[in-house]
Amino acid sequence: MTKTIIEMARETGIEVWRFDLQMRLERFAELVAAHEREECAKLCEDHDDYGCQHYADAIRARGKA
Length: 65
Known about the structure:
Radius of gyration: 15 Å
Number of domains: 1
Structural class: mainly alpha
Shape: elongated
Strand content: under 5%
Helix content: over 70%
Number of helices: 3
Distance between the termini: 12 Å
Number of strands: 0
């Protein structure tokens, strides 16, 4: 995911040649991905009456790989 974020940043014209900027973009990408995973997992939990808890667990597990 972080590599994709850096590639997208380059496509927009952001210069990512500075090491510290690349590190910050990678950290930002990690935070965005974690937030999105949690929001998706919560959505699954909100619909647990359909047996979606295992989906929420699987989504959260992606962040631990």
